[in-house]
From TrEMBL:
InterPro entries: Homeodomain-like_sf (IPR009057), HTH-type_TetR-like_transc_reg (IPR050109), HTH_TetR (IPR001647), MT1864/Rv1816-like_C (IPR025996), Tet_transcr_reg_TetR-rel_C_sf (IPR036271). Gene3D superfamilies: Tetracycline Repressor, domain 2. This is TetR/AcrR family transcriptional regulator. Residues 10-70 form the HTH tetR-type domain. PROSITE patterns: HTH_TETR_2. Keywords: DNA-binding, Transcription, Transcription regulation.
Amino acid sequence: MTTRRDRLREATVREISETARRILVEHGPEAVTLRAIAREMGMTAPALYRYYDSHSELLRHVVGDIYTELTAELQSAIAKVPHDDMSGKFLSVARQFRSWSLGHPREYGLLFGAPIRGLAPDEQADFAEECAQQFGWTFMSLFLELWQKKPFPVPPDDEIDPGLLPQLRRYRAERLGVALPLGVIQQFLKCWVRLQGSVSLEAFGHLSFALDDAAPMFELMLQEIAPPLGLTYAPPAKE
């Protein structure tokens, strides 16, 4: 049973995280300082050290919270699709990822942009890393489900680029812990590079030189990704 003191501490930690995120969204990552957070909360900066050991730890907690929010949005999108509709699941989660990213550009930049000063990862897995892994597993679990239900063509190991082969083996052993053919992992990474690359270019404004509306280009990318996975592309429902 939690005590009143525990509940007050949890509420303060939550308020600190929410305040840090609000400053991030309104003023950018460089403005997220302990002094700025304390000023908005009516506290002193040293008092924040009762809740976080460092500025880096606070930022990484904010990162973890944002990953958790994004993961929940993706899981919700998947849950709205019939269980056996793998094509629908893939398209839904990809579109939701883009939608969230464009709706939260500051948060997206914190998760996927250039490394931010003061946000160096700890040597051991921490809250942010665990939340990031849960986010990544949202996509990998779909690949696993698809591979188990309807395997798609993948190259044998001897046809994979020798420069990629040891890297794929290392990724499988150290990060996945799942006995998947290397060709499946290569296909997963190929799809992720295209999906996240497309979203990043749009979220960071790097497509505006040519496109006022990048949605059709995003759909074209999904249309090209689907067939190699044995999936059927369908355009998004009109609102």
